[in-house]
Amino acid sequence: MDIVGRDDVARWEELVGQAGLGVAPPYRPRPGEVVYHIRAGELAVQVAERDLTGPLRELVAAVLAEAGGG
């Protein structure tokens, strides 16, 4: 999802900032488990669904809701 030029850029920047993408969560996927690849600018993490918590979960939920998948 590209936020450039959107009216709600500040909201998305805040969600990304709170998610702490600079510090990757543990990467411990199990067979068959959903793995999220999350990228914001130069920051990127991979996280298994069971480790998707707190602000990172909120960021993913917001993106999925925006895309109509949440």
Please tell me about this protein's structure.
The protein is α+β, with helices and mostly antiparallel strands and 70 residues long. Helix content is 36%, strand content 17%. The protein has two helices and two strands, in the order H-E-E-H. The chain has helices at 9-19, 54-67; strands spanning 35-40, 43-48. The protein has a two-stranded antiparallel ribbon with strand order 1-2. Strand 1 and strand 2 (43-48) form a beta hairpin. The longest helix is centred in the last third of the chain and has 14 residues, at 54-67. The two termini are 14 Å apart. The mean pLDDT is 85.
Question: Which key features would you list for this structure?
Answer:
70 residues, alpha+beta, single chain, two-stranded antiparallel ribbon
Give a short overview:
This protein is of the alpha+beta class and 70 residues long. The chain is built from two helices and two strands; from the N terminus they run H-E-E-H.
